[in-house]
Amino acid sequence: MHIEDGILSPAAWVPMYAVSAAFILPGVREIKRRADENLYYKPFLAMIGVGVFIISCMHLPVPVTGSCSHPCGTALAAILVGPFATAVISAIVLFFQAIFLGHGGITTIGANTLSMGIAGGFSGYFCWKVLRKFNIPLWLAAGTAGFVGDIVTYLASAFELAISLHGNIPLVKQWMIFFMGYGPTQLPLAIAEAVFTAVVLKAMVSRRPDLLPGILKKTLKKEVRNGEIKA
């Protein structure tokens, strides 16, 4: 979903910067607060950022959309460090990818953050929270969150493209055309991300529950018994 420079019109990408900033600024404040409370938070956050960087670099070009398909990792990041912090991580990752790898663009960082870091991160996070509230097993809740976050990322990216490029075609129709352009490559990637999210989260709960944020520990307190998961 890394939309390149020149694809979106200024009338589209400028407001997307503003919307992304509305999530990034609270994320910066949250990171500062949690870093002051816990010395291990910044290294853990940096590790998550590296993971998102690597995962979202594995892309497949999608010529139909002027963009690309790839796993995102932002649903997993949002579960681990929170959705607002994930928005900040995504913006930083997208900046370095655009500068050093030519992957995405500078003018489209706001749009790409909105789709990958905000739409993907928040949708995956809320999916996780709702499923866990109904006592869905950890692996299934995490896997579903990874799948939903990935698909919502590309729904948002297709919508961003449609806003700028639909011309005389109805917006919703153009939106679905762009989304279907992603479909052949993105569906298997979303399934792979679901499996990856489930495996990583379950492994972390089993081996390093001390690294998980307080909200996640509370969610899992009934399932962790002497280092074992009851799920």
Question: What features would you describe in this structure?
Answer:
The structure is a single chain. This protein has 231 residues and is mainly α. The protein has a single domain (10-229), classed as Arp2/3 complex 21 kDa subunit ARPC3, CATH 1.10.1760. It contains 8 helices and 4 strands, in the order H-H-E-E-H-H-H-H-H-H-E-E. The protein has helices spanning 10-37, 41-55, 74-81, 83-101, 109-133, 138-165, 171-207, 214-220, and strands at 60-62, 67-69, 224-225, 228-229. The strands form 2 sheets. Strands 1-2 form a two-stranded antiparallel ribbon. A two-stranded antiparallel ribbon has the order 3-4. A hairpin with a 2-residue loop joins strand 3 (224-225) and strand 4. The protein is globular. The two termini are 34 Å apart.
SSE blueprint and pairings:
Elements: H1 10-37, H2 41-55, E1 60-62, E2 67-69, H3 74-81, H4 83-101, H5 109-133, H6 138-165, H7 171-207, H8 214-220, E3 224-225, E4 228-229
Antiparallel strand pairs: 1-2, 3-4
Distance between the termini: 34 Å
Q: Over the alpha carbons, how many angstroms does the gyration radius reach?
A: 17 Å
Instruction: State the helix count.
Output: 8
Note the overall shape.
Answer: globular
- By CATH reckoning, the class would read Mainly Alpha
Binned, the helix content reads over 70%
What string gives the helices and strands in order? HHEEHHHHHHEE
Number of domains: 1
How many beta-strand runs?
4
Subunit structure: Forms an energy-coupling factor (ECF) transporter complex composed of an ATP-binding protein (A component, CbiO), a transmembrane protein (T component, CbiQ) and 2 possible substrate-capture proteins (S components, CbiM and CbiN) of unknown stoichimetry.
InterPro entries: CbiM, CbiM/NikMN
Pathway: Cofactor biosynthesis; adenosylcobalamin biosynthesis
Subcellular location: Cell membrane
